[in-house]
Amino acid sequence: MDMEARAHSEHPEALRLWLRLLTCTQLVEKEVRAQLRERFDTTLPRFDLMAQLERAPEGMKMNELSRRMMVTGGNVTGITDQLVTEGLVDRVEVAGDRRACRVRLTPKGRKLFQEMAQQHEGWIVQAFSALTVREVATLHRLLGKVKRHAQDRAGQPA
């Protein structure tokens, strides 16, 4: 049973919408996880870590990676260790701080990530292919309003 099946017609439409969004997210994520596993023998957390590093060619400190990925430092360390072993990322010492290191993609890691990212983009486009271009734009705009409202209520910048 998916999240949406928990809602009934007497529930507010906003609650039913929330559950539909969660269900859609879970279905798309399940497909992305399966495709990453099948085509690249990797996981979504590994892909996410590499995506963060791809955006920072100079690399990132472990605590920054942990914060951006919203996971514990131990999770980031475990994934990083695996990727180092495979030659996809390396650790570089931070001048003036013996305890810190920056993690960055290796050329091999950058090449693999580019392949994965291209495929990932295609999977996401496919996930929304039931909608017209205009419907996608409308949904994006409407969800942007929800995001801004939630950020305003939480006192966060847009």
Q: Roughly what percent helix?
A: 55-70%
Distance between the termini: 35 Å
Unreliable stretches covering 5 or more consecutive residues: none
Name the CATH superfamily assignment of the domain at 42-106: Winged helix-like DNA-binding domain superfamily/Winged helix DNA-binding domain
- In spatial order, strands of the major sheet run 1-3-2
What is the gyration radius calculated from CA atoms?
19 Å
Shape: globular
Q: How many β-strands, per DSSP? A: 3
Q: How many strands, what sense, and barrel or not for the largest sheet?
A: 3 strands, antiparallel
Average pLDDT rating:
91
Structural class: mainly alpha
CATH architecture designation of the domain at 42-106: Orthogonal Bundle
- Helix segment tally: 6
SSE order and pairing:
Elements: H1 13-40, H2 44-54, E1 60-61, H3 62-69, H4 73-85, E2 89-94, E3 97-105, H5 107-127, H6 133-154
Antiparallel strand pairs: 1-3, 2-3
Question: TL;DR?
Answer:
This protein has helices at 13-40, 44-54, 62-69, 73-85, 107-127, 133-154; strands at 60-61, 89-94, 97-105.
Notable traits:
158 residues; mainly alpha; Arc Repressor Mutant, subunit A; three-stranded antiparallel β-sheet; 3 strands; globular
